[in-house]
Design a protein that fits this description.
The protein has 892 residues and is an alpha+beta fold. It contains 24 helices and 32 strands. The protein binds adenosine-5'-triphosphate and magnesium ion. Its main location: cytoplasm.
Length: 892
């Protein structure tokens, strides 16, 4: 066997497929683009869905990549099996309507066994195929010459790929035999034939023959265009070529593990032939090392792609990984933050193929360190909470164990360990039940999302060219109709209906890159059609959805007119998006990364990552910076160039979240803003006229959404609405509380109203009004508090003159109904009586709309003989609640 480093293996894979005319695709972000069905990119093919279902034309029908992927369902497997990671790299080759089974199998075999390439001895390889897939079986036997005892025909559960909807089909898997030393009972190929979990045969490559369409109800039809989709785990192949017991001793993880050894007292020990060390304690130690090495790598990559620790979705996963890794560190005796010091080891091992990690080192380290510190604080609070449960309840209920897990990150094992050390039981059964329920809920929440679109046959067939002429113009005379179709069929003509058309040249912008589609109309002697929508076709064609009044046929010419008002205002907003993006990066720093945007004629919104809270003055500063740039009258530049030039020469922002073509377009406003962008923009920043931020909300997980408007007219409208809203609130308060009128006299309000009708109303007016409103609100709250205090005193007054009476034992007692009072009032009253009489037992009950309450109090002098909680427990009304010798309270 050859000895190959991970980098050499990846390169050999990509070289091989490039030699076979495959187009190399850069690895893309772990955050899926336009795909709500996925939380993370979880395979190579997940990034290529639009090519597979026909929405987009691929740069070549043959593709190859090495794609980073995250599988959260494998987190529990990490460190337990030899071969699972949270984040791993999947090598792939793909055919989109090009070659199929025969060639895919031949390619795989050549790459794996040829001396020029991986040179794996063929007797070490085993194959599985779907039992009904006769073609695949015969290719392996007849074309490749696989011995029949090296190939197994298995069932649907292992050898048919189907996500329940969309493209699916049989697959063939290739396994590597690591030999008898990994198979102590010498079961041999039976392990494969019977699909028994084992360490001997490692699945390295899965080749899916995408052959059918599942309509979502398990009705299968042949796909109009068949595809090949394959995936092979890079880390697993590395462990084979580096002859290591698990993936963790390879050159990817080993430097991290060595670094962890340096900061703890434990050692990672392994022997060939058994990755579970004979010694149970050592196995646990090894697992801790593996989990840490795995989690720090996944976390570093996710943060570099713009995911920050948070309480939801991706942010939550990252938080969990960091917490888990920290807990494993504790098992190794590390008690402070340490994960951020491992980041450099991850970057060193991965930077050849992921050079962008180098620039992100600082961001990754700071983010992880912050989260570590935060978690360690939470953890000590968790200890306090657990201590309380142990001391007061003398047990840990399942509900509390789940609370410890969810709120304080306490794994159940930890809770059990601490509790059992102190002879306290944990209700594990209840915990497991609740835990499963919580998981089920999370699963269901995602289930109904459509994972794959049906392959749209009509779309895949569109092969006409169409040129966009609308960068500078909004009309195009004499455009030719080159394609007419509906969702069901391709047409040569149409009349008085809704159809899609493609023109040889069009000024209509198709919705993409966050910019809304153009609308408008097409016209000639025989018809007039409203263009309702424009969307992008598979080969960048602009597809117009039109409502026809009259008739058209292929070859007709039409004059095309874009709705100019909509386009103009959309452009102002799109350019405004670029400016606010840059301004936020200036004010808040470069961790601000745009993660989505939308702009149309009404305004703009932009999502961006940022891990801290944002102060109002920071927002104001960003807004002022944009306005300054508008007034600097900066001319817009556009450059078509290579990605290389875009980044090095024009310093364009590119975020690896999107796929870019070979030639990219850079939109630049001096050195202030430079972005890769296919949208339409104003000629000069002064055309934006004016800019104001109208809202900012946190979307959780370190993502914010900012909303803004541009242009004098839109801002005027916005300010008018805002002012009227504020004035109304002020007036409402004034009417409600005559006494606070001094804060805003009617005169002042009238003056402001006058101003608001004035066209040139200023933003300063809004600030002035907001200040008035804040003052009023504060004074109103103050007023309300006083009123409430007054009411309470009045309410309590009528219950203040109860006279205690001696009971059978001669002790003074007060037993009274105080209907209408709440618990808080009742406790105040009990205190009053305790102050008034030295020795008294008070029992008050109250029935009111909020419920029925009871409070029992015992004077200090009587507490040697009587206890409030004991009296409470035997009350005939059977209340539920708690307390101590002095006071008990509850509901009945
Ligand atoms: P397994 O049964 O081992 O979990 P799988 O059937 O889930 O594998 P596929 O979905 O077929 O795997 O993915 C293709 C390839 O990606 C696998 O052959 C394997 O090499 C690799 N792979 C899958 N999951 C992981 C993981 N969690 N960590 C590392 N590599 C993985
Ligand atoms: Mg799996």
């Amino acid at each position: 066997m050859k000895k190959l480093t991970t980098n050499e293996i990846r390169k050999m894979w990509l070289d091989f497929f490039e030699k076979k005319d495959h187009h190399f695709l850069e690895t893309v972000s772990l955050i899926p683009v336009d795909d709500p069905s996925l939380l993370w990119i979880n395979s190579g093919v997940a990034t290529l869905k639009p090519y597979f279902d026909g929405r987009k034309r691929p740069p070549s029908p043959r593709l190859t990549n090495s794609q980073k992927a995250i599988r959260t369902n494998d987190i529990e497997n990490v460190g337990v099996t030899a071969r699972h990671h949270t984040m791993f790299e999947m090598l792939g080759n793909f055919s989109i309507g090009d070659y199929f089974k025969k060639e895919a199998i031949a390619f795989a075999w050549e790459l794996l066994t040829s001396d020029k390439w991986f040179a794996i001895p063929s007797e070490k390889l085993y194959i599985t195929v779907f039992d009904k897939d006769v073609d695949a079986y015969e290719y392996w036997i007849n074309d490749i010459g696989i011995k029949p005892d090296h190939i197994f025909r298995l069932l649907r559960d292992t050898n048919f790929w189907d996500v329940g909807q969309g493209p699916c089909g049989p697959n063939t898997e290739i396994f590597f035999d690591r030999g008898e030393k990994w198979d102590k009972e010498n079961n041999g190929p039976r392990l494969l034939a019977e699909d028994i979990e084992n360490d001997r045969y490692i699945e390295i490559w899965n080749i899916v023959f995408s052959q059918f369409n599942n309509d979502g109800f398990d009705n299968y039809s042949e796909l109009p265009r068949k595809n090949i989709d394959t995936g092979a785990g890079l880390e697993r192949i590395a462990s084979i070529f580096q002859d290591t017991p698990t993936n963790f001793e390879t050159d990817i993880f080993w430097p991290t593990i060595e670094q962890i050894e340096k900061i703890c007292d434990s050692k990672y020990k392994y022997s060939m032939g058994n990755y579970f060390n004979e010694d149970k304690t050592q196995t646990k130690i090894n697992t801790a090392f593996k989990v840490i090495a795995d989690h720090i790598r996944a976390t570093s990559f996710a943060i570099a792609d713009g995911v920050f620790p948070g309480n939801k979705d991706r942010g939550y996963i990252i938080r969990r990984l960091i917490r888990r890794a920290l807990m494993k560190g504790m098992e190794l005796g590390i008690n402070g933050p340490f994960l951020s010091t491992l980041v450099i080891k991850v970057i060193d091992a991965m930077k050849d193929f992921y050079p962008y990690l180098i620039e992100k080192q600082n961001l990754i380290e700071i983010t992880i360190l912050n989260e570590e510190v935060k978690f360690l604080k939470t953890l000590s609070k968790g200890y306090e909470a657990l201590n309380k449960m142990i001391q007061t309840d003398k047990k840990v209920t399942g509900k509390n164990a789940l609370l410890l897990f969810e709120s304080y990150g306490f794994p159940i094992e930890q809770t059990i360990e601490i509790a059992e050390d102190r002879n306290v039981k944990v209700d594990i059964e209840e915990f497991n039940k609740l835990f499963e329920q919580a998981k089920e809920q999370a699963r269901n929440a995602r289930k109904d999302l459509k994972a794959w679109d049906k392959q749209n046959e009509i779309f895949t067939k569109i092969n006409v060219e169409s040129e966009f002429t609308g960068w500078e113009k909004t009309q195009h005379e004499q455009a030719k109709i080159v394609y007419i179709f509906t969702d069901e069929e391709i047409l040569t003509e149409a009349a008085d209906t809704e159809v899609y058309v493609i023109l040889d040249k069009t000024p209509f912008y198709a919705e993409k890159g966050g910019q809304a589609a153009d609308t408008g109309y097409l016209v000639n002697n025989a018809m007039r059609a409203d263009v309702i929508d424009t969307q992008q076709g598979p080969n960048h064609q602009h597809i117009h959805k039109i409502q026809l009044d009259g008739s058209i046929k292929i070859g007709d010419t039409v004059d095309a007119f874009v709705n100019e008002h909509k386009r103009t205002y959309t452009m102002k907003n799109h350019s405004g998006t670029h400016l606010i993006h840059s301004a936020l990066r200036v004010v808040l720093g470069e961790t601000v990364m745009q993660s989505g945007s939308y702009n149309d004629e009404f305004g703009l919104r932009m999502d961006f990552t940022y891990n801290e809270s944002i102060k109002p003055e920071e927002l104001l500063e960003a807004e002022e910076l944009v306005v300054k740039k508008i007034n600097e009258k900066i001319a817009r530049e556009v450059h078509f160039c290579s990605m290389q030039d875009a980044i090095n020469k024009y310093h364009a922002l590119a975020f690896f979240t999107e796929k870019y073509d070979d030639i990219v377009r850079v939109v630049k406003f001096s050195d202030f803003s430079s972005e890769l962008c296919g949208g339409t923009h104003v000629d000069n920043t002064i055309d934006i006229e004016d800019f104001t931020i109208t809202g900012l909300e946190s979307k959780g997980s370190g993502v914010y959404r900012i909303k803004c408007v541009t242009s004098k007219q839109a801002i005027n409208e916005y300010l008018n609405t805002e002012i009227n809203k504020l004035l109304k609130q002020i007036k409402d308060i004034n009417h409600k509380y005559e006494s606070t009128k001094t804060f805003a006299s009617d005169e002042k309000i009238e003056e402001l109203i006058k101003q608001s009708n004035n066209k040139d109303i200023s933003k300063a007016t809004i600030l002035e009004l907001k200040a008035i409103l804040d003052n009023l609100t504060a004074s109103m709250k103050n007023h309300e508090r006083k009123v409430e205090e007054l009411l309470t005193t009045q309410k309590l007054e009528k219950f203040k003159s109860f006279e205690p009476k001696p009971n059978a034992e001669g002790v003074l007692v007060i037993e009274e109904k105080v209907d209408g009072l709440n618990i808080k009032d009742m406790k105040t009253l009990v205190d009053d009586y305790k102050n008034k009489f030295d020795e008294v037992i008070i029992t008050l009950t109250s029935e009111n709309a909020e419920g029925n309450f009871v409070v029992v109090g015992v004077s200090e002098n009587l507490q040697a003989k009587y206890s409030a909680i004991e009296i409470f427990k035997v009350l005939p009304i059977l209340p539920k609640g708690g307390g101590n010798a002095s006071l008990a309270q509850g509901k009945f």
